[in-house]
Amino acid sequence: xxxxxxxxxxxxxxxxxxxxxxxxxxxxxxxxxxxxxxxxxxxxxxxxxxxxxxxxxxxxxxxxxxxxxxxxxxxxxxxxxxxxxxxxxxx
Length: 91
What we know:
This protein has 91 residues and is mainly beta. It is 13% helix and 44% strand. The chain contains 1 helix and 3 strands. The chain has one helix spanning 2-13; strands spanning 39-49, 55-69, 72-85. A 3-stranded antiparallel beta sheet has the order 1-2-3, with no helix packed on it.
């Protein structure tokens, strides 16, 4: 346990500078283009739960964007998901 706390303290002490851009409209996708050399890491998670019986699904996407030249950027995506489902209530 002490080792874990030491690693966490070191990570918080020696961590790098992080920045993020402000999103004006959180329910829409902004079309801002990154400046050359700028990078952005954007995680997305969508949860789907409920329905009849037991059901839980999580869809995840990790997006890495990078500005290439003026008014041009590129992006890479990693998509992964998980589903847990069971039978509905017995009658």
